[in-house]
Design brief:
three-stranded antiparallel beta sheet, 9 strands
Length: 150
């Protein structure tokens, strides 16, 4: 009976590791920062299945190449190469895990929520997430494929 319990623990451990893996993302123009890791939770596989009526946790680890007093997030759903603004509850990066002012050479964890409203259609699209500095330059920009579902 011990081997089967050990096997179960190994399988559960492997599953937990898969769930904790950082996402593959496309950097879409990070100029003033460098992305180390992007996590969307829960999103065990890509494209991420985003269920309507659910909110997802976003965690981006990045380092800054500049000094900035603040930052602002902009999120889009990209469909047919058109960026459709996607509202988020807190666009202010200084209220999203980043200690401001932002310092050159420091690493930060940006934390936010991505609410998927009930009225969103079931569709495949690209989520594009930007964080801009005081000068409107991108601290980071990343894209991932998602599918909104009921």
């Amino acid at each position: 009976m011990v081997p089967s319990a050990l096997t179960l623990l190994l399988v559960l451990g492997a599953a937990a590791t898969v769930l904790a893996e950082p996402l593959r993302f496309v950097d879409c123009g990070s100029i003033d920062g460098s992305i180390q890791e992007v996590n969307v939770s829960p999103c065990p596989t890509q494209p991420c299945l985003l269920h309507r009526g659910t909110s997802y946790s976003i965690n981006v680890t990045f380092s800054s190449k500049i000094e900035s007093q603040g930052s602002k997030a902009k999120v889009y759903g990209e469909m047919l190469h058109v960026d459709v603004p996607f509202p988020i509850p807190e666009p202010d990066g200084c209220k999203s895990g980043i200690q401001c002012p932002i310092r050159k050479g420091r690493s930060y964890s940006y934390l936010n929520k991505l609410p998927v409203k009930d009225e969103y259609p079931s569709v495949k699209l690209i989520v594009k997430w930007e964080l801009v500095d005081d000068q409107g330059q991108m601290l980071f920009c990343w894209k991932i494929p998602v599918q909104i579902t009921s």
